[in-house]
Amino acid sequence: MAEHRRLYGRADYYDIVFDGTVESEIDFVQALHRRHTGRPLGSVLELACGPGYHARALAGRGVGAVGLDLSHEMIALACEKASADGVNVQWLVGDMREFSLAAPVDMAICTLDGIDCLLTDDEIVRHFRAVGGNLVPGGLYMMELSHPRDCSAEHYGRYRYEGERNGCRVTIDWANIRPAPRLAERVVVAEVIMQVRGNGSEETFVDQAYERFLSPGDIGRLAEQSGVLEVCGWYGDFDVDQPFDESLSSRRMIAVLGRMGSDGRS
Asked: Which helix (H) or strand (E) holds 220?
């Protein structure tokens, strides 16, 4: 597993850039669960949660929420923000390839390409089995990834993210610098440069990590190999009426997996 550890280790700066409303995404998560199960969402696990934007927002709507991330710094910030928000979330520092919750949840979510740190088929299958083992029967797993049309191992592109808070301005430039030896597996080496300016000082952090891009075929194949999850839906944005296709309205690739029962059906 590969992580941009220098970037995620500065959770305070990361939050200045990426903090924002996720209400429309939370609306989608709840509508998605109801569409596929016929029930309201009662509990959720946010994987690779960072500062826990989705877990905190769902907890604020009365959903039992758990947030898991490998970064101690991210979980510490998430805990601090949940306390300030007055919401109750269970926070866990853990590895998304192997974890165990106190109780299974209705749904797991992983946003912003959080799964791209898993580089091999084996890691992804282990992850799928861990997720499936922590879902209730018929539970769902939603993964949000870049649309292959817009960002892939072959056509990565360059991205800039910016934010400012209390006189501190943070800029993050994200780009692929070279393909990894396993380009056939859609693995690349990505470089992140984070610049922080404020109070007359300036800091620069440079980070590199491997990232893997998953195709729809990869997701279906590896879910089948897991023996516990199967694909049950595709969406092109945080909108239950937006299909995953090549239209401009399909901005993201959102895969929905369901936990299979003992009879092999979700």
From this structure: helix 216-226
